[in-house]
Amino acid sequence: MLVDSHCHLDYEPLNSSLEKVVNRAKKVGVEYFLTICTNNKSFKKILNILPIYKSIYGTYGIHPHEAKHYEKISSNQIKEKYSENNKIIGVGETGLDFFYNNSDKDVQKDVFTKHINATQDLNSTLIVHSRSAENETFNILKREFKIKEFKILMHCFTGSKEFAYKLLDLGCYFSASGIVTFKNSNNLKDVFKSLPSNRILLETDSPYLSPEPVRGKTNEPSNLVHTLKFISNIRNQSENELAENTTKNFFRLFNLNNSL
Fold it and tell me: ω before 207 within 30° of 0 (cis)?
């Protein structure tokens, strides 16, 4: 059994053919899905999906690209949205993206911190997007973690080994996307080869980032099997063992062991 720990089932072309997408995933062993919120419009669509599929869970959060539109959001507002449905199990995706800088850096940092504070109050799990902002991301997480500990998932992790091992000190989990299968991702392969087995999750980030050998096509949760196969090879681990480990890690991280 596999879990797609980060997908965007509210996005097209997945949303308009969701039943087929879910069925294709289940045929190859992907049994559970976490569909990730990026803004309030996204959240409304997620709330419509959750009652239909028992196997789909959701999150609430504002993507760093969208932060400029949510400068005034408060941690209380985030908590209120989170509490609208008991299948909302994480806060995010949030974080810092200084590669595109679609939102002002200080605004991103402020909105990110508000998500962290909501996560702390909710005793939930934070889903973090970090690109070209390793030092800033780590410093904010470490600062807030010292105030009150919280659970962290580094989504679509593409950072350095040094960054990864600093994050391990905060108890972070790391999700591998299709990027790890790309031919030029040697450093990232080395990171996922060396991470502890109890800290790894798998994701598609669909409809984006299709793994090899389907790179360039629209991604969907069924393609998770390609990432599973690739990581099992680099870690010298059987696919069944890796699937079991990453599924257990997901359940533990999101406190789902007693509800499945």
Answer: yes
